[in-house]
Design a protein that fits this description.
alpha/beta; TIM Barrel; eight-stranded parallel beta barrel; 9 helices; globular
């Protein structure tokens, strides 16, 4: 059967424990949640960091500690977010790749993000892409609209990215593309041949858009960054629950869920 990669986005930068008391925020909680997600079928965990007050942080020591705890807990592949939070300076966000995770996000364009502004200045994006290439950190290209794809392809032409490219198609953020099947089909048709891609659906769009993405031959992401609800009126209590739900959809589509070792090859990660 075809192999699909499931990613668990454990925390994110926006939700708090007031929104869902089970949201993991400390390094220890994040590591435990990563293990649970891996046991449920996630080959990759997407990691945001929080400070002692639960706010998004780009503190490098917190990053190293969190990455280390996850590595001790399980063999899941770690993807560290350089998005961090809307109020964190870009220069601080760039430094997170010095923790040397296997993968890290590369957000290629600035945009309106809900009621805020997500700043990704062109010069900073190029510097970060160059540093990631030096360190051997695989960029996860988060793209929220068609213009973001154009910028990613420009970075490829400039020699700042290496093929095969890895895309996360983010749908349902206010300020980005709407979460519709038509938008997903059109976007995927524009990806370079041989690219690896996954769907990220935000909020209510998480389940339907990831299911459609899997049916189209892509990978998929879930987790408490993307949705706090297991089903209508039922909050998720763990990231593992959300991964287990998505893994069930994959298997119903007769897709084999890749383990971390298999995902390492499928994502063309450097050793």
């Amino acid at each position: 059967m075809p192999k699909v990669i499931l990613t668990a986005a454990l925390t994110g930068p926006i939700a708090t424990k007031e929104d869902n008391a089970h949201l993991p925020t400390t390094p220890e909680e994040i590591a435990a949640s990563a293990k649970g997600a891996w046991e449920a079928g996630a080959a990759v965990v997407h990691v945001h960091l929080r400070d002692a007050a639960g706010r998004p942080t780009a503190d490098l020591e917190t990053a190293r500690r969190t990455v280390g705890l996850i590595q001790e807990a399980c063999p899941v592949l770690i993807q560290l977010s350089t998005g961090v939070g809307l109020d964190v300076p870009y220069e601080d966000r760039m430094k997170l790749v010095e923790a040397r995770p296997r993968m890290a996000t590369l957000n290629v364009c600035s945009m309106t993000f809900g009621t805020g502004e997500f700043r990704n200045p062109p010069d900073g994006v190029r510097k970060l892409a160059a540093r990631m290439r030096e360190l051997g950190v695989k960029p996860e290209l988060e793209v929220y609209d068609t213009g973001h794809l154009d910028m990613a392809l420009t970075l490829l032409q400039e020699g700042l990215l290496e093929e095969p490219l890895q895309f996360s198609v983010v749908m349902g953020v206010r300020g980005g593309m709407r979460a519709t099947p038509e938008n997903l089909v059109a976007f995927v048709q524009g990806l370079p041949k041989g690219s690896v891609w996954q769907v990220i659906g935000i909020g209510r769009s998480n389940l339907p858009m990831t299911a459609i993405g899997l049916a189209m031959g892509g990978n998929a992401r879930t987790g408490m960054e993307d949705t706090l609800m297991l089903r209508r009126g039922v909050p998720a209590t763990t990231n593992g629950e959300l991964v287990e739900r998505l893994a069930g959809i994959a298997r119903a589509l007769e897709l084999d869920v890749a383990g971390s070792d298999e995902a390492e090859g499928l994502l063309s990660l450097r050793r």
